[in-house]
Fold this protein.
Amino acid sequence: MAAPKQRKTQRTVTFEVKTARPLPVGQQVFIAGGAKVLGNWRPDGLPLTRMGENLWSGYAILPVGESVEYKITLGDWESEALDESGVTPGNFVLKPGGDISIRHTVSAWKSDRA
């Protein structure tokens, strides 16, 4: 008799962020969101790792059955990612499901306008 199949309760979410222009050495990209592993909306919640001049990556273990909202920052709300129109976008929403890789391209940051 086969063992009962266990239901998976957690998933791995991989975030990849490409920046339109390289960031200075020492600058870091973060995911801020409504989950403890994403900092509970701290702007420097989940630090991503520099994978190249303008590519950042990181992952979080999140519950399978929950929606999670998040944003991309450079570590504070004054340097939040902007959309292609130069506008602060609404929260990104990660819907319930299995393991996933999410890719975003950031063309500008709020701090660029200062």
In short: The longest strand covers residues 10-19. The mean pLDDT is 92.
